[in-house]
Amino acid sequence: MNRLYIALYTTLVLYAIVLSTLYNPIWIIVMISAGLAYGVLSAIVAVRRLYFLAAASPHVALLAIALAIPTASFFGGYELLYAIAYSIIVIYTAGYLIRKGIDANIATSVIVGFTASFSILVVYYVLSSYPIEFSLSAIIMGDPLLASWDEAVVALLLAISVAILTLLTYREQVSLGVDRDMARLVGVNDKVYDVLAYTLLGLCTVGLLRVVGYILVHVLVLLPPSIAVIRGRSAWDTVNLSILVAVTASLTGLHMGVLLDLSPTGLTGLALVIMYIVALVRHKK
Q1: Domain containing 32 — which CATH number?
Q2: Domain residues for 234?
Q3: 282: how many CB neighbours lie within 10 A of its CB?
Q4: Which residues contact 185 (CB under 8 A, 6 or more apart)?
Q5: Angle CA 74–77–81, to nearest 5
Q6: Given a cut of 60, is residue 102 above it in pLDDT?
Q7: Which residues of 35-72 are buried (b: 16+ CB within 10 A; e: fewer)?
Q8: Closest by CA position to 67, among listed 92, 54, 93, 85
Q9: How many C-beta atoms surround the C-beta of residue 5 within 10 A?
């Protein structure tokens, strides 16, 4: 890692420390976790060209969380585990369709159509049967300011796990994104890395949906790599810039949200859009 990235990461850590002295540390942990998780995940999305599937993942997560509530009520257990299982099953299905030769756009469109339609039915049932346990507005908009310590710890552990798995397998993921046939010839097991990419996508979207919100997931998983690709010169530049951009936007959104009494998640998305416009303008110049 060059000196510039070390300086940028150090500055970001200091910014987080300052914010943690001003505001509730839970908020800082949650926003850093979201930025780190989606920063590294979005780099995988970029190098593997999974933009369409990533855009569909929030629809899958919404259905998974809605299904998890009656499932946990009937069988017992933790809603989050059921939601993760449902989400991964649906995303695996999309990946299977793509591997069988169906165009990625068509496969994703089918998944979005199914999950969007079925979500309406399941959410309607849950709202009428579980009015206290299910907050649709919290899932749609997200609110890190309402997160508990347990949710913060889960978010942080999830972000660290996703980051470690991504960085350890990033070289192979890049190889598959550049030339799948060549990667196979040199011994890369594409099935394993496909499953890993789909699993990470399912874990992030479900595990952080209550904190980040359904709407912002689209922005966090798609814009950081778009910015990184404009400014980066290599695959490792892409992952570093994606993390820096996502975490910076998350902390800035939280800071401005508290100061202006506005939604931190909404301002995080707005910060990413502004970053993208600035990067695009500077690139053209």
Answers
A1: 1.10.3470.10
A2: 3-284
A3: 10
A4: none
A5: 110
A6: yes
A7: bbbbbbbbbbbbbbebbbbbbbbbbbbbbbbbbbbbbb
A8: 85
A9: 15
Q: What is the dihedral of CA 41, 44, 46, 50, to 10 degrees?
A: -90
What does the pLDDT look like over 155-204, one tens digit per residue?
A: 899 899 999 999 899 888 888 888 888 888 888 888 888 889 889 888 88
Q: CA nearest 105: which of 56, 59, 63?
A: 56
Domain count of the fold of the chain: 1
**Contact, 127 vs 134, CB < 8 A?**
yes
Alpha-carbon distance of 117 to 2, in angstroms, equals 48
Query: 3-state DSSP: the chain helix, strand, coil percent, rounded to 5?
Result: 85, 0, 15
Q: How far apart are CA 33 and CA 247, in angstroms?
A: 8
Residues in the chain: 285
φ, ψ at 116 (rounded to 5°): -65, -45
DSSP E strands in the chain: the ranges are: none
Q: How far is CA 13 from CA 8, 42, 66, 165, 283, in A?
A: 9, 21, 36, 22, 27
Look up the pTM and report it.
0.86
Mean pLDDT computed over every residue of the chain: 84
Sign of CA dihedral 30, 32, 36, 38: positive
Lookup: tokens for 140? 């749609």
The four Cα atoms 261, 55, 222, 39 give a dihedral, to 10 degrees, of 80
268 burial (CB, 10 Å; 0-12 / 13-18 / 19+) is buried
Q: How many alpha carbons fall within 13 Å on the CB side of residue 241? A: 21
Q: Is 151 exposed, middle or buried (0-12, 13-18, 19+ CB in 10 A)?
A: buried
Residue 99: DSSP 8-state: H
Tokens of 182: 């060549």
